[in-house]
Amino acid sequence: MAKVSSEDLGNKPIGKLLLKQAAPASIGILVMSLNVLVDTIFVGNWIGSTAIAAINVVLPISFFIAALGMSIGIGGASIISRALGAGNTLKASNTFGNQILLTISLCTVLVGVGLLFADSLIPAFGGKGAIFEPAKIYYRVVLYGVPILALNMVGNNVMRAEGKPTFAMVGMIVPSIANIIGDYIFINVLDWGMYGAAWATTGSYILCFCYIFFFFISKKSELKLRLSHFKINFSIFREIGSLGFVTLARQAVVSIIYLLMNNILFDLAGESGVAVYAIIGRMLMFALFPVLGITQGFLPIAGYNYGAKNYDRVRKSINKAIISACILGVLIFISIMFFADGIAGVFTSDQDILSRAPNAMRWVFAATPIIALQLIGAAYFQAIGKALPALLLTLSRQGFFLIPLVLILPKYYGELGVWISFPIADVLSTIITGYFVNREIRQNLKASQNS
Fold this sequence. Notes:
The protein is mostly helical. It is built from 16 helices and no strands.
């Protein structure tokens, strides 16, 4: 493998660099999404559709805690990218050490709280009726592995900040393959049911941690951690917190949406309504992988060049990322419109679910061609360290628009009101993001393109 340096982020042609950064990120997200997809298919066919709903109830709780790692990882990665761009390796290393301290302390506390209040949290997130018991089994086992997952997310984002997307890709592939193999052994061969699904997931987190740990203690990383780098630095804490809060707030909103959707759909359509949303949620993770990959690949390019004051390259990276992701969004949209019925049939043979899922899926993906602008626009402000606009634009899609729409429209349109809320929120948030990105380019980047 050719040696990769963070300096490439400031020298290579933007088009080739974006492809080099986005392709491994896309592959990693694809494999991770396939893992979630296959996991759901295995659970649905080997355990039952109620088990799909049970996992969907647990995900927002466990992922919110794990999102601390993601938020600390992305917030710190923004600092590391800009520090490397400015030639400040010491700050980059100190940031990484402080990321690890924050992740371990915060996630451990939250896992303890989550386990203590399990019987209250599971029903609150839609784990009612027949869903409660399998959800509780899955919840307890998976929560033990969540701090490890959070550390994996930190390490993965730091790899990208160093300009090493291929290693980060492998870090996403390892747990995905491990989880699929674990599912087959624990669920199908050993017949452990929900325990098997849970231990396959937790075991995959542990294997991923082993890989990431090896990366950072080897010569592959530019950040050579010493004990001095783990010294608490409140200035770095604040900067990680302000930027990472964007990601944490986004995941908090996602958890709230799961809570609302699971409860609203349970009231409208029972367990099958929750299962429909679980299937659509998996498809959102899977189908959007190339758009999300471009967004991930774009972050270190924008952050590094902004730190190096190379504003022309920042502007070009925004344009190329948005155009590329929009083209992919159109292809995803066409695929969902034509193949929604077949996709739903892969997950279950339950006719009640199959009668609802395809049209619901088409509505949820209706605005896919334009969401690239919203995702990349919000990511840009996070990459350059502008926490407030990043936070507001990140929350606009799901927080400011989707949640109110989901609360209001079902009162008038029933279950259809739930699904049409998604494209309306996508369109409104994209318009707002487009305005702010255009203003940023005109005022702060375009004027500096010749400097």
